[in-house]
Amino acid sequence: MKAKNVTEKRNWLARKWKLMIVWFIPVFIVGAFMIVMGVMKSSEPYKKALSLAQGNPVVKNILGQPIEAGWFVSGSINEREAEFDIPIKGNRSGGSVHVDANKHAGQWRYKNITVQPDSSGQLIDLLAVDNPMK
């Protein structure tokens, strides 16, 4: 009786292995994508850029409030460099925050954090000297 159960299980697995692989590949891809997005969204450059955008009066005036981050962050980040775009949206319009930074001696140094609203060609420098959120 035991031999029959083991044989039946092997036969089922032998018949269904292709279906299991077809199911596993999208699950693996989605899982890897979620991990990458989580790493980017938990990074210091991401948090700083989003905070600057949400607190900037010019950005608030153009996009409206509240300013929320979109789900898909494009670009790259590693232990020494970050360059990515964060989609953002207010109650009036949307845009994107561009971040370009390097890490030296354990500290992030920001070369560029700008907002490009969808509704205008005006590029807003969040690192400008007169920016109270810097």
From TrEMBL:
InterPro entries: Coa1. The chain crosses the membrane at residues 20-40. It comes from the Bacteria. Keywords: Membrane, Transmembrane, Transmembrane helix. This is Cytochrome oxidase complex assembly protein 1. It comes from Photorhabdus luminescens subsp. mexicana.
